[in-house]
Amino acid sequence: MDINDLYEQNYVPYSKKASVAVVRSKNGKWFPGVRIENICYPLSISATQNALFYCLSEGHEPAELFTDEIHATMIPSWEKELGITSNPLEKDELHNITFDNPVLEADLNKIDKLKELLDMAVVGESDFPVSAIVETEQGYFTGVNIECTSWNMGLCAERVAIAKALTFSSKNLISLEIHTRKGEFSSPCGACRQVIKEHLPKKQIHLHHADDSESIHFSEDLLPHSFSSSSLSNR
């Protein structure tokens, strides 16, 4: 997959405007991100946030951002928050970048992996780590919650995992697993439920609780009467 391929991986059924960002980590690895829209527009994930949080969720420190969203109002905030430099995305200059596919194979022990991922969460604000694994036809994609000092800039584990899977061409998301180390009940927030409803309709959501119990729900049951509108185009 290269830069041009990433433009095909966008999920932009509402704006029809694709965006791409790539992040170079301090140890020289590259992480891509594409725009992931939601029918509830404010819940859309920008390509820049997607790429940055993919990098962070894999335990790497971002150093440099290349994005075609360079004039977005949040770019200075990302520079200040993460100590990165940002540059316009020039496809010709970055055409030879290679990206590691983060997909995990089907023989994965999901419970063990979910517990392992909790240590990867960036939770300096809440100290409440959450991990997520989304199953696709390719295999499994992981996510952890990433928090920022400006709370509205953070993203939950569920959305990090979903965005990562969609970036790597996994359009058919099969199921989602969520784990927390603390709390009485492991449950996605309302914003995540809206995103889950769009990308995993009628799919099973497995909630793994801090006491090692599990409950299984369908996405429609997690968010009854969710927002939808035939007035908005969708695939």
Automatic annotation (TrEMBL):
Pfam families: dCMP_cyt_deam_1, dCMP_cyt_deam_2
CDD domains: cytidine_deaminase
CMP/dCMP-type deaminase domain sequence ranges: 105-230
GO cellular component, one term: cytosol
Superkingdom: Bacteria
Keyword DNA-binding carried by entry: no
Keyword Repeat belongs to the record: no
Protein's GO biological process: nucleobase-containing small molecule metabolic process; pyrimidine-containing compound metabolic process
An example Gene Ontology molecular-function term: zinc ion binding
InterPro entries, alphabetized: APOBEC/CMP_deaminase_Zn-bd, CMP_dCMP_dom, Cyd/dCyd_deaminase_Zn-bd, Cyt/Deoxycyt_deaminase, Cytidine_deaminase-like
Keyword vocabulary terms for this entry: Hydrolase, Metal-binding, Zinc
Alphabetized PANTHER family for the sequence: CYTIDINE DEAMINASE
Oligomeric and partner information: Homodimer.
Family statement: Belongs to the cytidine and deoxycytidylate deaminase family.
Protein's name according to its UniProt entry: Cytidine deaminase
Species: Fodinibius salipaludis
